[in-house]
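call fold target=Leucyl/phenylalanyl-tRNA--protein transferase
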Amino acid sequence: MPIYLPTLNHDLTDFPAVHNALTDPDGLLAMGGDLSPQRLINAYQRGIFPWFEEDQPILWWSPSQRMVLNPGAMHISRSLRKSFRRQNFTLSVNRAFAEVIESCAEPRDYSDETWITDTMQDAYLQLHDMGFAHSIEVWQDGLLVGGLYGLYIGDIFCGESMFHTTTDASKIAFIGLQQHLVSIGCKLIDCQLHNEHLASLGATEISREAFITKLNNRNATIKPQQWQPQALVLDYF
């Protein structure tokens, strides 16, 4: 059955109301527009994110259920603690953003395709230069073996993607992220869509309406010094 999707024009604030998103596929809201930094910021502030493949137009989503985690509420298993100590990981904030997003864009074992296109990478690199997009890096013997990136829009961190080339490195990056967010007073990590990996770490689903309420009630103040490139020492191990 054909579906009707609003097509975005050149107005950077022109997004349909999120309650108009489709139920099948869940959360699909609009298509078109561009990935300019201001449009992306406007989208995230409204609970909307882009997700599309190379041969598709830009698709914008706001799912009916949102996967979230309260910083400080992460489940850290005994085996993960042992893995961290055994593998001698070190962590950092914003010391290798370009390398992290490039690694996140690499094909996975289960697919040769990636939704993090070159255009997408360029857009988030611009957001990083503007102080909105940030990364957590995991290192082992001087090599980048894991990490994640996302946007901080004041009180809420919108996670985008993570990667690992060594067992547990992406989980360790997530632990590092939530510790850093606790230290700067962040209230919520937006994980977007449900997956078992995040659920095992303590993420849960809330309704789109509840998530939008949290967005609207957040303190949007961003302090650049909170995201200066720095080493990150975990307190949990």
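return ok
The first strand starts at residue 7 and ends at 8. The chain has two domains: 7-63, 68-232.
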